[in-house]
Design brief:
With 122 residues, the protein is α/β, with parallel strands linked by helices. The chain is built from three helices and five strands, in the order E-E-E-E-E-H-H-H.
């Protein structure tokens, strides 16, 4: 089982992730992963994240993690040094972060609309 969430937070937005994976005693040989990734686009944006595993079984392989960060200024600089303006560099990096989620959407029209929205909102 894979529990994967991602969030892009801008302006004064506040995102909260409180996830829990429970592995009961009968679920031997379970392989579970939980990951929460967050991108902050504003100094006033905030994310509270709390991934949790509760494991009662003995023979399992489980992992969990969380990241919260901003765009890397060196990545923006690299793209600018290749001829992109700052706004385009930001948009490209934001879309690269979001594409993991967007590509999983099975409805093409929704997938395209969300992809366009990510680019238009920066």
């Amino acid at each position: 089982m894979i529990n994967f969430t991602q969030c892009i937070v801008d302006d004064r937005a506040h995102a909260v992730f409180n996830g829990k994976v429970f592995v009961p005693k009968a679920a031997q040989l379970t392989d579970a992963k939980q990951l929460n990734r967050n991108l902050l686009l504003s100094p006033k944006a905030r994310v509270d994240t709390k991934p949790q595993l509760e494991i009662v079984a003995d023979n399992v392989k489980c992992a969990h993690g969380a990241t919260v960060g901003q765009l890397d200024p060196e990545e923006v600089f690299y793209l600018q040094s290749r001829g992109l303006d700052r706004s385009t560099a930001f948009s490209l990096l934001i879309q690269a972060f979001a594409i993991d989620v967007i590509e999983r959407i099975p409805v093409p029209s929704l997938r395209d609309a969300l992809g366009a929205s990510v680019l238009a909102n920066r």
